[in-house]
Amino acid sequence: MSILRGMNVLVTGGAGYIGSHTVIELLNAKHDAIMIDNFSNSDPEVMFRIAKITGQKPKIYDGDVQDKTLLNKIFQENRIDAVIHLAGLKSVGESVKEPLAYYRNNIDCTLSLLEVLKENSVRQLIFSSSATVYGQPEALPLTETSRVGIGITNPYGRTKYMIEEILNDLLVSDPEWAIISLRYFNPIGAHESGLIGENPKDIPNNLLPYISQVAVGKLDKLKVFGNDYDTPDGTGVRDYIHVVDLAKGHVAALEQFKASDKVDVFNLGTGKGSSVMDVIQAYEKACGKTIPYEVVGRRPGDIASYYADVSKATAELNWQAQKTLEEACADSWRWQSKNPDGYAK
Ligand code: WQD
Question: Model confidence at 260, in pLDDT bands (50, 70, 90)?
Answer without folding.
Answer: confident
